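#onboarding

Welcome to the new folks! Below is a worked example of what a typical request in this channel looks like: someone posts a single protein sequence, and someone else replies with the predicted structure as tokens. Don't worry about understanding the tokens yet, we'll cover that in week two.

Example request:
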Amino acid sequence: MTDTPDIEPARSADRPGQEVPRKPAVIVATSQVVRGAVGGRSTLFALERLGFRVWHLPTILLGWNPKYGPSTRIIPDEASFTAMVDDLIGSRWLGDVGAVLTGYLGAAYQGAALGRLVDAVKANNPQAIYLCDPIIGDEGNLYVPPETVDAQRNELMPRADILTPNLFELGWFTGRPVDTELAALEAARSLPAQRVLVTSAPALRKNSLSTLLATPKGALAVEHAELEGVPHGTGDLLAALFLAAELEGADDETALARAVSGTFEMAARSAKAGSDEQMLTEHQHAIVRPVAMVSARHILERKARA
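Example response:
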């Protein structure tokens, strides 16, 4: 048997000779598709490309995005899913976890199990971040049953440090109007998380969309041109990029601008190539070092916050 060779620590490409700090592991619990770049496929690619170790707990396995048509759906039964969560809670590596990200639920019972997992991670590491992407629908329609909506609302959203609803989900969960920037912001303020990031929000400029961020220190918005033929999965990518920036210690304004820039560039380049899927491999530079120019502006809010 030969001796194991010494392995040099990783070095930074930007600062030669400087060691790269080890990034925390992130637990991602969301959907998995065999083909495509939505759900876990998008989230895992982005986080791992940015240097985070990912524990992936699929909530459902699909052949492809349901918008393309039906495919086989494999949902773990309650006993198996609960047992897997218990395995993670009891694992000797739980201390490596610095964040949890949950997205699409395959069944309502997954909410309570994932809530216990979030609690265990935070008990082990009080600085851990929990981002809840409460995926229930879009474009005016729910695509999960009411009991799954309730699981997001009752089990996961109250535990979240960061919530990332789209505009439809924001309106559904709050029961408030969200047709203007200030109305959407007031609705976001009524949700339980410290930070609420709202995608596809009303913009001040014509033919544009906005991403809003409500924080304890104020509110921010980043606007960009509305694209035609936007590929699926941009919400998954945005949530992953925002979480990554927060874990790396970026301030809220920087984290928002970086996440929107990367997501917009990925969407624009993929759409230009005629793809209805995010071209993650081909345009991964947009994840690591986006060049799309965006800037966050501060929003002047009404004095009374709902």
